[in-house]
Give the backbone structure.
Amino acid sequence: MTDSVQPVASHFVNGAYLEDTAGASIPVIHPATGAVIATVHAATPAVIEAALAGAAAAQADWAARTGAERGRVLRRAADIIRARNRDLSRLETLDTGKPLQETLVADASSGADALEYFGGMAGTLTGQHIPLGQNWAYTIREPLGVCVGIGAWNYPTQIACWKAAPALACGNAMVFKPSEVTPLCALKIAEILTEAGAPPGLFNVVQGAGEVGARLVADPRVAKVSLTGSVPTGRKVYAMAAEGMKHVTMELGGKSPLLVFDDADLDDAVGGAILGNFYSTGQVCSNGTRVFVQKGIRDAFLARLVERLKGVRMGDPLDEATNFGPMASAAQRDIVARYIAAGIAEGARLVAGGGVPDRPGFWVEPTVFADVTDAMSIAREEIFGPVMCVLDFEDEDEAVARANATDYGLSAGVFTRDIARAHRVIARLQAGTCFVNSYNDAPVEMPFGGVKMSGVGRENAAAAIEHYSQLKSVFVRMGRVEAPY
Ligand code: NAD
């Protein structure tokens, strides 16, 4: 079916591939077929030790380089990624099942954007001079030390780069643990960073499930943990990090609202809802899965949506005509199928999809429920699959109140032609990342992250620098010291 994607070894530590077959076997499954395409081994304590010791050793020398030198390595890595975009995209497609049509433009390229952006910024990271009359103070922006990155399975290349780029720009080293569901892509990023001139040990990749992640988080040499994952995992990792008073970034789940007002451009609103529910087969944390549609436009919205879903091309994700792939794993397919059954049982009206095709791989049809109420489980819980819930509303106050009635707060969107309403509504929505007449754009220049249970901290933009560095304050007395005795 495909060329071999078996990596040279399971881990990338101290600038080279490293194997330890004593670790539990992890089969890598291509979600479109269910075929095992590679096998890696979970990191043993010896591998974890080598990675942490290597990172600690590399970090001091790396931090001592000038910012411009560090930035050059990151920008070189970005160039290599762009030159190899097709190969990296293909690997991402095999690892995740996402269509090549998507991965060619959304994954390695987004990772390259982050490396380029933070590479450019590395030379500008400074402290501040603070005049104090005769005296003065200054701040030094210092790296945190060894950072741990832990990834989810939906965007393995992007997540590795979004964490590595600001961490390394600030002078930190990183040990990254990809999701056990998609272990292949981060290894390529480690290879490329090394080729670009990153010293051995600066960016290490170790494989394994939660147990390996927990060992990394608990290690006293680790100063910071950045997790992309679910809220239950976030709770555990945050608590563990608190034991060691470590810095954290938590990029967690969501159940984000998308508000469509009567005056919205119908096709744009339908397009936004499609992007915010079915891109990457719905496996996107920031998806606008609660689509609140004002009553006057509701029927037209549903009719247009159903019409446009005829454009779905489900099939081999390596075929560039395919625009809808499988779920990343059998377990996730089963979770989504259970939610679809729950939606039907709870009385929601199925207006599109709902099927779980009987074919090899982990497929679910793009599914739309209408007449969804706030109390239904499909409207309250993160499904992380291609299931759109359409809810009706009468007026703005009601829509805002219902949109905010969730523990999550990752994203929110509004479609309206009324410019004042757009900004008024966004100001009232409890979410970290918002969209006006659009959905799910994530340029590296814009901070990304959640409020409430959806997370802590921000990725991307200058905001990320605050989460990978700390300030040392230095008071300088220019005159004599006047002590009382
Ligand atoms: P998950 O929480 O099951 O796993 C995430 C990662 O944490 C994996 O690498 C896993 O091995 C690791 N892990 C699990 N238990 C751990 C522990 N006790 N200690 C340390 N590490 C542990 O999430 P998932 O199923 O891989 O991904 C889906 C979830 O991720 C969804 O909730 C989704 O919304 C969220 N997500 C969030 C963002 C974001 O940026 N906010 C992006 C993508 C995905």
